[in-house]
Amino acid sequence: MDLFDNLVLGFSTALLVQNVLYCFVGVLLGTAVGVLPGIGPTATVAMLLPITFNFEPVTALIMLAGIYYGAQYGGSTTAILINLPGESSAAVTALDGHEMARQGRAGPALAAAAIGSFIAGTVATVVLAVAAPPLAAVALKFGPADYFALVLFGLIVSIALARGSALKALAMIALGILLGTVGQDIYTGTPRFVLGQRELYGGIDFVSVAVGMFGIAEILRNLENERDRPSVLDRVTSLWPTREDRRRIVGPIARGTGLGAALGVLPGGGHVLASFTSYAVEKRISKRRSEFGHGAIEGVAGPESANNAAAQTSFIPLLTLGLPAHPVMALMVGAFIVHGITPGPNVITDEPALVWGLIASMWIGNVLLVLLNLPLIGIWVRMLRIPYQVLFPMIVLFAVIGTYSLGSNEYDVYAIAFFGILGYVLIKCGCEPAPLLLGFVLGPLLEENLRRALIISRGDATVFLTRPISATLLALTVAALAIAAFPAIRKRREVVFAEED
Amino acid sequence: MRTSSTPRMIATFAAVSLIAACSGNGNGGAEGGDAAGYPEQNITVVVPFSAGGPTDTVTRMIADPMAKALGGKIVVQNVEGAGGTVAAGQVAQARPDGYTVLMHHIGMSTAPALYKDLGYQPLEDFATVGLVTEVPMTVVARKDFPPTTLADLTTYVKANSAKVTLANAGIGAASHLCGLLFQAAAGVKLQEVPYQGTGPALTDLVGGQVDFMCDQTTNTTGQISAGKVKAYAVTTPERVKSLPDVPTTAEAGMPQLAVSVWHGLYVPTGTPPEIVQKLSGALKTALADQAVIDQMAKLGTAPVAAADATPEAHRAHLEEQLTTWAKVISDAGVKAS
């Protein structure tokens, strides 16, 4: 009964007064920075790291971890209420979540996100406790060829996921990939598309693109038809999902949790893939496929569960191998080191109280988050009633200050303006920003791993078919491509029929 | 693209508001540059890499004790991009009044060889304040890689140069430079596999996707002690305390492979010498601080000797490194732009 002993040890550590207190501080801060556009968990953890130098190591890590997964909750709130995903994983939540908010169903959307996140967080914590070492071993088996296949799979799936024309979605992904290539090529150092500006050598900042494409573009669109202002917000009466809603979210939460827990283990962008994949799966198997993009609660519950589960299991590579899967995890490595603990495979045996205490604290943190978020949702709803002439400049100001302070790079601010206008034009043309953002995030990974796989194999392209993981994923990609082709045809026929009616 | 650049924002957020709050009373007296009253306002130390990284960690470690010694406040600002050249370019243009200081690492000496149109010259545009620390590097391999010693490794990679892979953390990264030195010392040209940073590279090394690499002890010590990777040598003249069994490159028969990630503080040329001396003095005080020594030890490194935390020693080291790397990099035919 090792697991039981470990959990007892973990909870006895995590339930110490100061640990519960700092866990609460962490998740509260995390929610707040998740909600504020442009300020993310990585920044917060970086800033608070020095403050935690004087804490007990386990207390410090509990608080820093709380900020990270707390932000996953908070990020979905802004995505739903003002269509401004703070992190790439929340971009999916915005698709249907914000539609629901526009229809006056912000309450159930927020509740579905919170409930899904809580369930996913709880399950993923157990997964973390039980399966950490074997899962980490699987993650290590992923070589560059396998990553390439995985990313390709993600991109193809997202085409099927897009609203409307598959061709436009493909074009948006391609544009996103091109934007992602701006900056120095990591293999040769050659600057690409930098227009002679050294500030662009590091590439275009993700936050600028997200804030511009989702935030500013959305504001422009809202200003255009001011009368469309969702006065429905005033009719947000019930937070609690209806019985029908509850019935509809059970499956997505279960599947999202499974997907998220599995993909979260992968180093680099696991939680982004998790939420996109979950959305694709839900859309694919739903009987109400046409509702997706127009406020389907499954499209909120699934991805939210997936990204929260992934946030939890992304600690697996850190705790079992000492390898960071996310920038926040890299900062956590710093936190370990500062406290004299060298992260690595030995931590779990050398510091059991710390590791199990941290794991147990995540469950406590998830409970705190639900308590924090459901009552506090009222505040966020009230925030939305602020008149546009006050709210919009505030959002723009926050976004600009936040983005500038990321790297003190004025180009990041220009990028917000550029992508805001680009996003607006694209929306006007009936193109969705979500696939563009996905291409932008995954494109560099696709290229990097394709080239790395070929470098290691000395140019032998069969490596993608001879590695079992890669071959399986590529087969799935082909299947997804085939399936994606059919609804496109069917949809067109449906449109034709609709017009004939 | 940059997905991971979020770290600094709040740090700078705080910095901006601090500066805003303090500039009201700070500018009352002299127009900067008054050495006697220095510091009369906040000193900004610019870090050219992301918050949470090794350079940032070292800077934040010494910022407080330095500020205490100076009797002022130090604000750390992260300005990322182009291997640290964006930050260096900014500080080179800053007013030489001692209120803008640059923390930079070995990249200061390699950038002129790697980048064309750098926009600044390390020796002309900067005054050195002092060296801070030198982080040793290790030569490590996946655990089932056949060679067992550094000499074995050299023989092996020469015989198998067509299939051996050498990972690094990207163009101009310390691991890349160390890899170049190894190839020069061994007299062999290997297939290099660049990664975005040292974390993913080490992950693939542990996973056995690539054969071997050079990396800082801050990253490798844990994996070496746990037996997840095989260590051949450390690249400093002395062994590393946390890895007592790993020989130095000199002991292992390759003394040419000497490299460490050294850090130093700079101010723009034209900064009054008295101010440079004050900064250097504060640096020395900070480096003698037991808390700083302890924190650095945990990172697998140590403060430089007091004699090296001086403008003169730092300048001499910078000159020597500029020459070394200009040759290594041009021999290897590497260019970052």
Task: Give a brief description.
The complex is a heterodimer of chains A (501) and B (337). Chain A is mostly helical and 501 residues long.
Characterise the protein shown here.
- The complex is a heterodimer of chains A (501) and B (337).
- By secondary structure, chain A is mainly alpha-helical.
- Chain A has helices spanning 2-14, 17-35, 41-48, 57-82, 90-102, 106-141, 144-161, 166-180, 206-224, 243-263, 270-285, 298-313, 315-321, 327-338, 347-350, 352-384, 388-407, 410-428, 433-456, 463-466, 468-500, and strands at residues 183-184, 191-192.
- Chain A has a two-stranded antiparallel sheet.
- In chain A, strand 1 and strand 2 form a beta hairpin.
- In chain B, helix 7 crosses helix 12.
- Classes of the chains: A mainly alpha (501), B alpha/beta (337).
- At the A-B interface, helix 3, strand 1, helix 9, helix 14 and helix 17 of A face helix 1, helix 3, strand 6, helix 8 and helix 9 of B.
